[in-house]
């Protein structure tokens, strides 16, 4: 099953699955991630010209579970 782009899940493994990234606040290039930028914009940071940021939800490092965000998948419809 393919996930909706920008969906966020709690993931118990210590690696990023294909088409997912850790919600660690990293900056991404808009040019390489136009669809995800269309959904997130600069809500979590970035300059909105060259880059934007993923949400930073993994501040608790006591356990292996981390939040991940779908970076490539189904584009959610507004209908």
From TrEMBL:
- InterPro entries referenced in this protein's UniProt entry, alphabetically: Phage_tail_collar_dom, Phage_tail_collar_dom_sf
* Coiled coil (UniProt feature): none
Q: Where is the Phage tail collar domain?
A: 7-58
**What is the protein name given in its UniProt record?**
Phage tail protein
Q: Which organism is it from?
A: Mucilaginibacter antarcticus
- Phylogenetic placement of the source organism: Bacteria, Pseudomonadati, Bacteroidota, Sphingobacteriia, Sphingobacteriales
């Amino acid at each position: 099953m393919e996930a909706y782009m920008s969906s966020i899940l709690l993931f118990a493994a210590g690696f990023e699955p294909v088409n997912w990234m850790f919600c660690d606040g990293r900056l991404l290039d808009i040019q390489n991630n136009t669809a995800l930028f269309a959904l997130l914009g600069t809500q979590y940071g970035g300059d909105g010209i060259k880059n934007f940021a993923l949400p930073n939800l993994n501040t608790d490092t006591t356990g292996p579970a981390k939040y991940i965000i779908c970076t490539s998948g189904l584009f959610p419809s507004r209908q």
